[in-house]
Amino acid sequence: MLRMFRSSLSRISRVSSRLTSNSVPSIVDDKPWLNPWKHAIPHKDETHTSYSEASVDWSLVERVIPRDIVPDLPRHSSYPTPSGWRPPLDPPPSLPYHVSRKRDHLFPLYLERRRDTLNEKSLDFDYVELVTLKGIDGDVFACEADLRSYLEEAVGHPVTTHVDELKGRIKVKGADRSHLEKFLFEKGF
Length: 189
Fold this sequence. Notes:
The chain is an alpha+beta fold. It has 2 domains: about 1-40; about 55-189, SUI1-like domain (Translation Initiation Factor Eif1), CATH 3.30.780. It contains 6 helices and 6 strands, in the order ααααββββαββα. It has helices spanning about 1-20, 25-30, 35-40, 60, 140-155, 175-185; strands at about 95-100, 110-120, 125-135, 135-140, 160-165, 170-175. The strands form 2 sheets. A 4-stranded antiparallel sheet has the order 2-3-6-5. A two-stranded antiparallel ribbon has the order 1-4. The longest helix is centred in the N-terminal third of the chain and has 19 residues, at about 1-20. The chain is elongated, with a radius of gyration of 38 Å. Residues about 20-25 have low confidence and may be disordered.
């Protein structure tokens, strides 16, 4: 048994010595088509790179980075300001819905221009302006009913609305953005 073990060890050592010998790389060196990348890339002994630290004035960059905290409401001596801005009522109105302002303390009103109908005389499309009110929490349909009655009274003609309850949005066709702002200011948002 011991003799069989010694013979198998000697066979293993002979095979390992053949594998570690330089006979295999010499075949590869003689035949570059076996490993073309070895001959295409120059051999490097060291791969260390040098670096240098640059001094940067970060104060110029920090003022451009957006703030993580919403700034406080600006205080003015009288309201409305010359631009027409007013702060929200404190405490907020007790309505079944609430319209939150954006981080710059303005209302989330967005204007969108879409192709509407084909003008048969000029064979060109007429465009319509849609105003989207976003950020509505609570009963969106109650907000839409109040908004539609206010806008139809202010504009003097019927106004079309579309409610997206899941996203808390109302799209309005037939009224100007300024009328929606007046509605939100009068409600105290």
